[in-house]
Every structure is written in structure tokens, then in C-alpha cells.
Protein 1
Amino acid sequence: MTDDLTLLRAVHDMYDTLDPPPVDLADRVLFTLELEDLEFELMRLREADQLVGARGPETASTVTFSAESLTVMVTVSDSGPQRRRIDGWIAPGGALRVELRTPRGVHETQADADGRFAFAEVPSGLVQIMIHPTTGATVPLHRPVVTPPVQL
Amino acid sequence: MTSATSDDTGVGVASWEVAAREFAAWRAGDRAALDRLVRLLTPVLWHLVRAYGLDRESAEDVVQTTWLALVRNVDSVRDPQAVLRWTTTTARREAWRTARAGKRVDVAEPQTLDAALPPVGGPDTTVLAGRTARTLWRHIAELSERCQRLLRVIAFEDRPDYASLSSELGIAVGSIGPTRGRCLDKLRGLLAADPEWSDQRD
């Protein structure tokens, strides 16, 4: 008869084998924790039309994130070798300031009045989108909203 | 806390001592210690959160939220020795709350059941062979939801906080120990009756 400890160890190893955490989960957590100002709302991943981080040529995927006051739909497509293009759509629409964090720096743009924005050439790797409260925008944000990091 | 790492369960769960040391080092200004702490505990949090039936995306959200909560509320962890319990309890509570809100509960097989075969052949005897793992998975699935949750939690968390576990499982604190015993007995019985299991374990 298997004793409790042996059995629990087997349960532990079984889950580690069959339902392991995503390999880059700790990396993504740390990417978020590197933000200097932690006063923001972390958005939740709502839906993805394919696995986030799917690689290979010709891939385009759409991911939707939601915060309390807005959602952002992001479509990622190839724009060259190791390069991605990001098209985003914030709803409700508004001319909000948008930042894209990458391991190699921050890109910045401004959404148009309909909430649409784009980053044309983004290196593959972890990225994170940050939407800031913006003077004059029709969408009032009390603090920035930040997506969880995703692999491009 | 009286015993070291995981003497009482022996299941190889993350050590509260190591977690305490990294947490204290980080608080003292060593940024790399936070990196090590996150890498040490993130897999544990993942398994605890998945025990509440959340799908993988929701589980990731909860793990991220837990770490943000720790960094934002770092002053509420006065004793570094409490950091393991603080994070595990926070993660379980958030997972339970999310699951109760009825969001995307995943009762299906793990995505990796067929895709991810276990690491092959290494000298590490703690790694179960794939077939053995699947047999065990199948029998655990026959247990009650409460048993499944409890076993996954205690397989990854040394001395979970019984008060929070009690409300999350809907049983009295005093019943957790006996319930744990009954769940393990039930599983043992199922395995003993399965010739495939005995073959694999011999």
C-alpha cells in the first residue's frame, strides 16, 4: 500500500507533468513587476482567437483585454522577419495615449478619436500595452490600464 | 513554524525558508532576489490556482494579480517567514473568488494531456512516466470535486492556511484533516484496483 507521502508526491509530479505552468509565466510576471509605477489596473485577457504566442509565418491573431472602464482588441500580424505589426482598437473610443513596452524600450503613440492605434514594427518577444489617462480624451481614466505581457 | 521545508509532507513543495530568505533580501534592496522569489513560487501558485478549476488564461491572470498584490502591499508582510503563506493564501482566495463569479471554469482535461509527454528518461526518479501520470489523472478525476481540489492544494502547499481552505472547500476546519485522509484512501483504493497502476509501480 502506498503511504500518504508517496501518494501526494505522485499527485504533485502528475500535475507537474500533465498541467505544467506556461514556461514563460514567471518571465511575464517579472516583466509587469518591472514597471516603476505600480499604480495601474491590470487588464484581463478576455479572448484569443488562437494561442497567444503562436509562432510561424503568416500568423495573425486577435486578443481582447478588458479593464473596468474599457476594452482593447489587439491584432498582431507579421511585418517582416522577426517583426510584428500591432493594430489596436480601444472601446469606448477615445484619443488616449498608448505605450507599448518591449524588452528593448517603450514605443508611444496616440489613439485616434475612434480609439484606433497601431505600432508598425515591433520586435518579437514580450510586449505589454499601457493606456494612459489623457487630457482631452472623451474616455475618462482614473489611472493607467495595463495588459498582461504577451509573447509576440 | 517549527519544521524545515517540507518535512511533514515530503512532497517537494517550495520551501518557506528559501522564500523568506529571498523576500528579506529583496526588501533589503537586492532586486535579483525578487526575480528568484517569483521563479520559485510561480509554479506553486499556478497549481494552487488551477485546483479551483480556472481555465489557463484566468489562472494566469490570478497569478499575475497575486504578485502585483504582494509588491503593492509589501508592508503588510511584516515577517519574511510569512511570505509563502501570504502569497499562497492570496492566490487561492483570488482563484476561489474568480471561480465563484462563474468565469470560465475549465472542467476539461488539461490542454497538455496529450500534447506534453513528460521529460524522457532523466535520472530524476520523481518524474513519473507519462503512462503512470495518465493513470493517476484518470483516477483522480473519479474523486469528488472537493477531494480533487484538496489533494492538489496539499500536494503543492505545505501546511495551507486551514481557515481560508475551510471556507473555500465548504467544510469545517476540524474536518480538513479527516477529509484529506478519506480522499487519499479513496484514491489509494482506486489505484489498488487498477492492474495497470500496480504494473507500472512495480
Note: Confidence is low (pLDDT under 50) at residues 1-10, 107-127 of chain B.
Protein 2
Amino acid sequence: MREHVTLRKVALVAALVIGALLMMFPFVWTVITSITPDGTLAAGPTLLVDNPTLDAYRQLFERLPMLRIAANSLGVATATTVLQLLTSSMAAYAFSRLPFPGRQALFAVYLATLMVPLQVLVVPLFIQMTRLQLNDTYFALLAPSIASAFGVFLLKQAVDGVPRELDEAATIDGASHLRIFGQIVIPLARPALATLAVFAFMSSWNSFLWPLVVVRSPELMTLPLGLSALHGQYTSDWNVIMAGSVTSIIPIALIYAFAQRHIIAGFAHSGLK
Amino acid sequence: MTTALTNRDVDHSPGRSPSTPPARRRPRTRRRTLAWAAFFLAPSLVPLTAFTLIPMISSAWVSLHEWNLISPMSWVGIDNYVNLLGDQRTRAAFSHTLAYIVGYLPLTYIGGLLIALALNAAIPARSLLRSAYFLPVVTSWVVVALVWQWLLNPNSGLVNTVLGALGLPEPGWWTDPTWAMPSIILASAWKDLGFIMVILLAGLQAIPGELYEAARVDGASAWHRFWRLTLPLLSPSTFFVVVISLINGFQVFDQVYVMTAGGPGGATQVVVGEIYDLTFRYGRAGEASALSWLLFAVVLLVTLLQMRGQKRWVTHA
């Protein structure tokens, strides 16, 4: 009986490992393609590259300001994350702790914006940015994600979970709302803040439609946009395109390597409602 | 991806803080509360108004006009909506989007469930394996689309090289109208499998182990335990996955734009692709706005129907 169980476990692990290797393989293939010399790809792929070269990377950096583009992606994603954490946690505090008139109605308005997809907003936002002459600026890239109704919603749940006795005690001690917010509520809402940070960063890092609409100059491009432009210009230079893909995977893969536990927990948390 | 969460919170917002019943508070305190509320809300309310609420209203307004983004708008009432509903292209865009969802959802759900079930067992290197399956989730859609366009390249791609070596037929993948949507589905499933798996795994881990013990004592087979215990108790997670996948599925765009740009011959033109083309290729902003509201209406309707139907199949432990 025991041997049977062990055998089954071995088969299970073997199947999982094969599956994981299959899932990883596209990444391996991307790297292999990126170090293959020009002109040898059309003959069909080989696992072992004959004359591996970094030439595709040289070409990539000649064609696009890749470092600038990667820095843009990191900068915009970081700014989005910081801004969303700040604006959402402040709003969450107001909705959870401040009994101002019209609170329910205003919260309903926030929730309503949550239901409206970006596609509905793209055309008028583009027109608005054109009128304000803000197209092709960092501000335009950031603007639609400064505040996040999703973030407010997520953090309000968390702030509601912080025991009110704590702030009442602080109030008696003469603490202001700003103090209660910064010293009691924020530290206790940390897991939810981490979840929001993961979502804000990832969605900014991945965002494509809005940058595609609002950015024109290569100096302002983010990675998805730069790659798409590269792809549009050099359709069949697969080694260069894959070099671009590798370059844009590296930063997020590094972040993932260090924070994977939090990232996976953040995603998993979104399902446990 | 967040719409699913909204339903239950609306009724749950807590009442006023018990320590400060509004009737007893003096006007001065009240004014002060209002000032604090303004301070805490302004950082989100100002951008939300400027970059979401106002565009929402103006989008609705634009949808009632004919407008090429340059010359002045002219009022057409609901004509844009009427035209779109009768238009062959709109129907095609919605049916391509549906085809995407019909292929994508079972593939990611069943795949994600199998992996989650396997990872839920006590096995070595569990978190390493989980990380491996999850890695594509953090990769951007554009990268996913490019990598798969290369893997599925009809001439020198790896997949066709392997198929050819095995003596199997080599499809034209994204260059062939029949195979283009399956190519997009395959790439999308690869990216999202880890996300679905993690959600389902969290759901599985929330099922109390004693339930399985009890079922085992009662002599239920593994097969029986899966159908009678695991699946019903996992239904809240399944519900979440289905709602999120449908919302995201209706809004599919990035990977399509990069892999096929709606082609070949319009075979993969999805709704958001049509909105994009109407605006930026054909300069028909009025119709584009109307189509975006039609899409919103469909997503809202589908989500509400699921919330309604939830009672019939979702078990809350």
C-alpha cells in the first residue's frame, strides 16, 4: 500500500516537473533565439546555437533607446504604485472613519467608476489630453491611474477590519486623524497595501492600450510599446525582437525572484473574497 | 478584473462610528469632520473626476454624435447605436470575442485546476514548482504575443518544425484565418494559467482537511470525493475565476493587436480592436464611443446574470 502511494507521488511530481518545464520552455527559447546570429534563423530553429552572439542586442540598442525605455517602464510603474497607495489609503480612511454627509453616495460613485472599462474612456481621454496639450508627456501616461477605485475598495475593506477601539483610545490621547491614519491604520492594513502594490505595479508594467494611444516619441515609450514598435518595423528579425523580449522580461523577472511570495499571495488574495 | 468584488460591499459599508453619533456632535466638530474628509478624499477624488468621471460623461455625449476628431461634432441621436447593432462588422467582432472566450476559459480553468490539485498534495519542491507555473503571469502581453508569434511561426517556428519532424500537418497558425484565433487562445492560456492556478490553489487550501477525513472514513472513493466535496467547496473560487475571465475576455486586445492586428482578413477582429480601429484608423469617434458603451452593457449584463445565477451552483461553506 505504502509503495503504491509513493509510486503515485513520484508520477505526480514527474508530471508536474514536465509541465513546469513546458511552461518555462518559451522563455528558454526566447533567450536561445536572441543569441542566434542573423540569417541562420530562417533555416529553422536549433536548440544548440552554432555561433552564439550578442549581436542582436547591439542592434536592439541601436534601434531603440532601450535603457531609457526600461527606465520609463520602471519609473511609471513605481510612480503609479506609490500614488495609488497614497490616494487609495487616504480615501479608504475617509470612507471608513469619517462620518461626513453623503458618504454612502460618494462611495457608490467610486464603485461605479470601477465598473467602467478603460476602453470606454480611451477616446475622450485622448481628446482631453490633446486639448490640454498633454499628449506625449509622462503626466499623460500616469494620469488615468493616479487614483484607483479598485484600490479604494480593497483598502476600505482592510481599514474597516482595523479595530475602532484603537483609534478611539488615540483620540482620547489627543491624536489627530492624520496621526491615527499614519500610525495606527496604515501599519495594520499592510497586507492589503502589499496586495494593492502588486496589482498597481503589474497593471502599469503591462499596460499597453493607453500608452499606445498617448505616446508618440521613442523617449517616452514604455517596454510593451517599444517592443510593439520594434515588431512593427522589423517584422522578421526574430533574434532582435527576442532580444527585446528578453530585455523587457529581465527587470520584472528580477522583481519576481525577490518578491514572488508577496506577488503570488497578492494574486491569490484577490480570489478569497 | 475587479468588478466581481463590488457586489457584496455595497450593502456592507459600516454605519457611523458608534462613538460619534452625528446628532450629538456640535456644528464645529461637524465642520472639522468635513474638512478632514475633504483632505483625505481630494487626492483620489480630483484625478478620478478629471480622468474617469468627466471622460465617462463625455464618452456618452460623443456616442450621440458623428465626429471624425477634427471637424465639429454633429448630433445624430441614437443613430450610432442603431447602425452598430445592424452592422455586420459589429456582429463579427462580438462573435470573434466570444470564440476567444469559449476557447480560453475551459482551457485555463481545467488546466489551472489540474495543476492546483497536483500542487495541493504534499510533494517536494512545491513552492518552486508553483513559481515556475506562475512566471508567465508577470510577463507583459506584448512579450507573450511576440514569443508565441515566433513559436507558432508557420515557416521557421519551433512548433511547426517539431510537427514536421513527426510527420504531422503544419498549420499556418496566426497567418491562417482558421488557426489565428486558436493561436491567440494558446498564447493567452499560457500567460494566464498560473493566475487561475493560484486562485484555485488558494481555494483548495481553504477547504478544511477534516471534511476529507470524514469522507474517507465513510468510504468515499477519490473520484467521489473530488466530485462531491472538492468541486462544490471550490465553487466560490470557480465563480470568481469565471467572472474575472469573462470580464477580461470581453476586453481582450493587447495580444490580438500584436499577434494578428485583427487579421488575417479580419478573422480575429475583436470588439476592443474594432473600437481602436474605428477611432484611430477610420476617424469615427462617435461610433467608437457607442461601441464601447455597447461592450460595457454586455459585460455588465453578463456579470449581473452570473451574480444572479450564483445561488444555484455556488456553495458557501
Note: Chain A touches chain B through 111 residues (CB under 8 Å).
